Amino acid sequence: MDATIAFPLLVGLVAVALLFDFLNGLHDAANSIATIVSTRVLRPQYAVFWAAFFNFIAFLFFGLHVANTLGTGIIDPDIVTPRVIFGALTGAIVWNVITWVLGIPSSSSHALIGGLVGAGAAKAGFSAVVWSGFLKTVAAIVLSPLLGFILALLLVLIVSWLFVKATPFAVDNSFRTLQFVSASLYSLGHGGNDAQKTMGIIAVLLYSQGYMEGGFHVPTWVVLSCQTAMALGTLFGGWRIVHTMGSKITRLSPMQGFCAETGGAATLFLATWLGVPVSTTHTITGAIVGVGAARRASAVRWNVASNIVVAWVVTLPAAALIAAATYAIAGLFA
């Protein structure tokens, strides 16, 4: 490891990590609220408060498996230095800002993972990558939206059969209420999976600087600060991406919104329990496409969905390149 850095610089790096967490909440606010806003169950200003609350309390319901994966399962923690963490966070933040400005629902999670791999490889080559954890995460790029798609599709078919004799008005009224439940579950899953990624980054930084006794772990203050930063980011919302997620892919009814959120939440709960850092963006997009396809294939605007998929594929290498370049540039001032 490099020599330890001055405490003020360490505090500054932790602040940058929390800034990323805030931007993650800002960038991914749409994932939690797009369906409930597009179905007009809640106004945007109320929906973000609803989502932020459940983002924050997520730590009460989940373990820290994802944080441990990010801290020790993507790159070798023994090669982690403040410069590596700075490069990783810069790569993720720059890519998040670019996609947020353009209204592209890319993955904050994979931007961070790409940043870690890029900065880690710039320091120690690709031998620094923990391939088992990294490949598991890459596999989730395909599996999480696919599982969200299948679960949402099945839910639409089951619900349609159960309510086949109900009037459209009665169905809408029932699912407008149920969407409060499904949106809450999705926001819990979002807070549980996404906030833990920043926890892992801060924890491995503290570990690399000798601030942990008894081995790698995630301190309670790190858990609370990351959940708070994400919840605050969600409060500020990401309206450009809400528009893409909530209406450009397919138009949703309250019943379809419920199925999309529930299918997405189930996927996130499973991934968080397994310790897999998945993309909430990928998951909810897959679920929204699933409910649209259940109606008919032409109900999905496949050109919009395909543009989103391109952003997914580009995110990992783009963030990695920015992180590697940042690591190299930072070395000029070391």
Task: Write structural notes for this entry.
- Keywords: Membrane, Transmembrane, Transmembrane helix, Transport.
- By secondary structure, this protein is mostly helical.
- The protein has one domain (7-328).
- It contains 12 helices and no strands.
- The protein is elongated, with a radius of gyration of 20 Å.
Summarize the structure in short.
The protein has twelve helices and no strands.
Q: Averaging pLDDT over every residue, what do you get?
A: 84
Helix and strand sequence: HHHHHHHHHHHH
User: What share of residues are in beta strands?
Assistant: under 5%
Large-scale geometry:
elongated
Helix segment tally: 12
Flag low-confidence runs. none
- Summarize the amount of helix as a percent range: over 70%
Oligomer: single chain
Q: C-alpha Rg, in Å? A: 20 Å
Secondary structural class? mainly alpha
Termini Cα gap: 15 Å
How many domains would you count in the coordinates?
1
- Give the beta-strand count: 0
What about the largest sheet? Answer: none
Keywords:
single chain, 334 residues, mainly alpha, 12 helices, Phos_transporter, Anion permease, transmembrane, phosphate transmembrane transporter activity, membrane
How is this fold's topology laid out?
Blueprint: H1 7-38, H2 44-56, H3 65-72, H4 82-102, H5 108-124, H6 131-162, H7 168-208, H8 220-236, H9 239-248, H10 254-274, H11 280-295, H12 302-332
Helix pairs in contact: 1-2, 1-4, 1-7, 1-8, 1-9, 1-10, 1-11, 2-7, 2-8, 3-7, 4-5, 4-12, 5-12, 6-10, 6-11, 7-8, 7-10, 10-11
